[in-house]
Amino acid sequence: MRTDPIAVPEHRRTAILALMAELGDAKRVALSTHMNSDGDGCGSEAALALLLAQRGITAHIVNPTPWPAMYHWLLTDGVKDRTPEGAKALKGIDRLIVLDISDVKRLGVLTETVRALTPAPLTIDHHLPSDEPPGTVFVTDTKACATGELIWDVASVLELEITPEIATALYTALLTDTGGFRFSNTSPRCLAIASRLLAAGVNPEEMYRRIYASVPKGRLGLLRDALGTLGTDDTLGLAWVSVAAGALEQYNVTGEDLEGIAEYPRSIVGVRLAVLPSIRGPSLGCASHCSFATSDMAR
Ligand SMILES: [Mn+2]
Questions:
Q1: Distance of CA 239 to the CA centre of its chain
Q2: How far is the CA of 299 from the centre of ligand 1 (A)?
Q3: Would you give the distance in Å from CA 244 to the centre of its chain?
């Protein structure tokens, strides 16, 4: 028997209802996601803020690093980003919901504050579990193509309205976490949801232009230089590129513009792991500021 791909899996429905019960009569909620938030983190936050508003819950965003400029258009009326206030923006809230994170340490500068929160945060995520998850009550499933898929499920289970703004935010999450519907997490369900999002008002070409065709000129200069450093190890299936110290300043771009560069060495036939060490000084290091791209990973 074939099941309807759009139906919410039973264990997710149960988890979403448990999360809403745990939320209780909370009226002031904060949302957070990982450092250097991506399309899934930002899209999921924007969509959930708008969905919670339909339930009379006011939600604002507090991230460990600034909202990415390339997703500024997700901050529509009703999506309030209080990241610049830092941990202070977590004061006076009834509950924190952490999105797209399985390890509390990915909250960066907010980690200590979040560890001390009572009640503990709630989590909606699709990564493999970690030793120290943020919070105690979870909606989590590694089979979800993006955290945005789980936010879609929240809307379905609670029978909330998918407005064009919410559809746009969720499409951003699905599109970016699947690499433009190309990676192995592009499931039948992912595309079934994307289809519903188009029907709800998403303009796919506009989304392509905003996300993939709006790069600053300096980003291509950065890419040109990075590709000049290409190295490979065929035996290990490894490829790498590097970015010179001072390159971001030289091209007047930010760390956000490093996003996606590792996809190029990854695209070489036979390469299973690509590495982009981002260099902060004259020495090459890969301890804490590396971008990895593998052929199969939760993003
Ligand atoms: Mn994700």
A1: 25
A2: 5
A3: 27
Residue 259 vs residues 12, 59, 199, 244, 284: alpha-carbon distances, Å:
31, 28, 30, 15, 19
Going from the Cα of 33 to the center of ligand 1, the distance in angstroms, rounded, reads 10
**pTM (2 decimals)?**
0.86
| Structural domains of the chain, ranges and CATH numbers in brackets | 10-211 (3.90.1640.10), 217-294 (3.10.310.30)
Q: Residues 6 or more apart from 137 whose CB is under 8 A from it?
A: 18, 19, 22, 120, 122, 123
Question: Exposed/middle/buried for 190, CB within 10 Å: 0-12, 13-18, 19+?
Answer: buried
Distance 41 CA to ligand 1 centre (A): 6
Distance 255 CA to ligand 1 centre (A): 19
Q: What is the mean pLDDT of each run of 10 residues along the chain (299 residues)?
A: 84 98 96 96 98 97 96 96 98 98 97 97 96 93 98 98 98 97 96 98 98 92 95 94 92 87 92 78 38 51
